[in-house]
Amino acid sequence: MIFGLCVIDVGISQKPDLGLVYQWTQLEFDYPNAKARQDDIDSGNFDPTSAAPIDVDVHYSYAPNKKNRVFVTIPRFQEGVPVTLGVVTDKKLNNNPIIQPFPSWEWHTNPKRCKRDRLVSVFRVMIDECQRLWVLDTGRVLSEQTCPPQILAFDLQTNMLIHRYEIPEDLIEVNRSILVTPVVDVRDAHGKCKDTFVYVADCQAYSIIVYDVQRNEAWKATHKSMYPYPNYGTYSILGDSFDLMDGVLGMALEPYKPGQDRKLFYHAMSSPTENWVYSAFLRNRSRFIHNPESSPEVFHTYVGERTTQTAAEAIDKDGIMYFGLMSDVTFNCWNTRTEYGRKNTEAISRNRQTLQFASGVKVVTNSKASQEVWVMTSRFQKVATESLSQSEVNFRIQAGRTEDLVSGTICKSGQHSHSRPSGSGGGYGLVKPPTNRYGSTNTNQKK
């Protein structure tokens, strides 16, 4: 499979833009035959008007005769979702690309039975430098904690499960926690890939869970910067409004440099602020094991703010962050070497039709060693207001080369700024007020 990002036609004078890779009016899955699909519809296991994708990641295979693959996630926060993680195929049904369950159908069936080999509900995934797909399974069906949440790793050369960790109950709040974003920190990518940590955003318990893969143990850190802002709990996107109070959701690591620490950038989705913490502090188990709130001094919040909410974020090799802005309906960049805020961010793509609710963002290094940014836009405001129309394109995956998108922008020319962040803080979980069938009963949330 060739994605063709090098042939996006932008004209002579037009700035390079994101190019469309896939789009759907409704999701379709790779059933063995039409009868199996119809049986799932008749039983309520598959509702074509209900399933909504949230995230995307891309695997460029370096093995001969192996195809590149685009992974998508479809969390089970509403009824009628038969598959929660899949690969986009070249096949189509009614002009909608068909999604093949990953790693197989068996992993997705009967999620409430809590089989050992299971995928219950996945919001986001991350592919690391070691050709591993890390999957964060919330274990929730609708608002019920059906199974223990788990972190899984698959070898993308074989599709085999190579690691599994069930997150202990004392690190979550049952029927409240929603684990929405994994960020993988490989400390020895050029070695044996054993020294790995996974940082997990819990958007409803307002915490970051830290998992040490090599030692197979986890702990969590909490700080007020991970909480939502009540004034940012109402979303307005092109005339549709809904309430969503999600805490920490967007997270991204700055580029790895041997011998240096990395900043983990993060934000609550329902907030105007961006925050950061040195990953070395998070990796220090002794700081948090007895008290998740023990180290407020290590968390920092920039003084500058956004004017609207943002969900996922990703950072390229040059330290440039990419993210969508909800009410603005734009895709944007920010050079993380500068102070955060409006004066240092710039819209690199503006399209009110195709950029609605950027719920998944990834920076991917392709087979030619150049970087691309991939974006899933899910039109979640239509999902939240139950106004999705199957006569319109609702979900899109778009991509572009990072160097093209930021060329000539303030993000590319940004210089190092020794700005001083304040010392304290200001997946999206899709949690709604109690009156909405998608959410929990907790109303003090943020995303």
From TrEMBL:
Keywords (A to Z) from UniProt: Glycoprotein, Secreted, Signal
InterPro entries per record: 6-blade_b-propeller_TolB-like, MRJP/yellow-related, Quino_amine_DH_bsu
SUPFAM superfamilies reported in the protein's UniProt record: YVTN repeat-like/Quinoprotein amine dehydrogenase (SSF50969)
Region of interest: Disordered: 411-447
Subcellular location per the Swiss-Prot or TrEMBL entry: Secreted
Composition bias type Polar residues, residue spans: 437-447
GO annotation, cellular component aspect: extracellular region
Superkingdom per UniProt: Eukaryota
Biased composition (Low complexity): 413-422
Pfam families: MRJP
Residues passing through the membrane, by range: none
PANTHER family, per database record: GH10609P-RELATED, PROTEIN YELLOW-RELATED
Family: Belongs to the major royal jelly protein family.
Protein name listed in UniProt: Bee-milk protein
Organism: Zophobas morio
Higher taxonomy: Eukaryota, Metazoa, Ecdysozoa, Arthropoda, Hexapoda
